[in-house]
Design a protein that fits this description.
- 2 copies of one chain form a homodimer.
- By secondary structure, the first copy, chain A, is mainly alpha-helical.
- Chain A has one domain: Winged helix-like DNA-binding domain superfamily/Winged helix DNA-binding domain (Arc Repressor Mutant, subunit A), CATH 1.10.10.
- Chain A contains 7 helices and 3 strands, in the order ααααβααββα.
- In chain A, strands 1-3-2 form a 3-stranded antiparallel β-sheet.
- In chain A, a hairpin with a 5-residue loop joins strand 2 and strand 3.
- In chain A, helix 4 packs across helix 7.
- At the A-B interface, helix 1, helix 3, helix 4 and helix 7 of A face helix 1, helix 3, helix 4 and helix 7 of B.
- Chain B binds a DNA duplex through helix 1, helix 5 and helix 6.
- Chains A, B: GO terms for molecular function: DNA binding.
- Chains A, B: It holds the Pfam family HxlR.
- Chains A, B: InterPro entries: HTH_HxlR (IPR002577), WH-like_DNA-bd_sf (IPR036388), WH_DNA-bd_sf (IPR036390).
Chain lengths: 122, 122
DNA sequence: CAGCATCCTTTCTGATACTG
DNA sequence: CAGTATCAGAAAGGATGCTG
């Protein structure tokens, strides 16, 4: 039974890193964390401008997910028109160095990877 | 024009870490890298047993992707029945510490994240 | 043994229109 | 301003059967 195997969900039980990547391994989370890590706070539309190619929907969805995980704060000001500010939490800050380390590795090895990919056939 | 914005592909140009996550941020790559990082070499079916809940297709697809990026080696022995061995490359090894650091962070903060998620409403 | 091919389901992302 | 709701397309992942 192939189905039986899947139920063990081996990867998340024995591989905690997957639990993180399930959260921040998506298309936008890391970028948002990096931006919020570089600023004190930011409003929704500021983020939307900063990340030129994100859709409003995905910005909302991603921010909500990061908020749920306790990586960013969402502060609503009861004004008209509404103002909502986002900032990174302490938990988020503690994750940042690891993201940046990964980013450094990426910068340093991007070329190697790309060359490898171009040479690769079949 | 919403479409115009996307073409800039801001995230990959200005955010190299995304280029890495586009590759290893999938469901299985990290796990495979961790396993191959802990062993000298491994055959296809060994990996398939080690990762109990991966499908044969995804194991093939993921290994090919890692190979294309130069993170793992694929060595084919011209025998019958065929034998194919996989091992991690030097490039892959250089990435490993960062994955493990992320993994450590995950272990240490899993509970906090889960609590945050449970408390989160809408 | 180590796959490949095909079909199918699920999940992710985006476009668009609308709103307190 | 900062969203929500809905729909549609793309991509990822899985089940199954077949093969050198």
């Amino acid at each position: 039974m192939e189905e039986e195997k899947r139920k063990k969900n081996w990867n998340n039980v024995n591989c905690p890193v997957r639990t993180v990547l399930d959260r921040i391994g998506d298309k936008w989370s890391i970028l948002i964390l990096l931006i919020l890590g570089d600023t004190e706070k930011m409003r929704f539309n500021q983020l939307n401008k900063e990340i030129e190619d994100i859709s409003q929907k995905m910005l909302t969805v991603t921010l909500r997910s990061l908020e749920a995980d306790g990586l960013v704060n969402r502060i609503i000001f009861p004004e008209v028109p509404p103002r909502v500010e986002y900032n990174i939490t302490e938990l988020g800050k503690s994750l940042l160095p690891h993201i940046k380390a990964l980013s450094e590795w990426a910068k340093n090895n991007l070329e190697t990877i790309q060359e490898s990919r171009e040479k690769y056939v079949s």
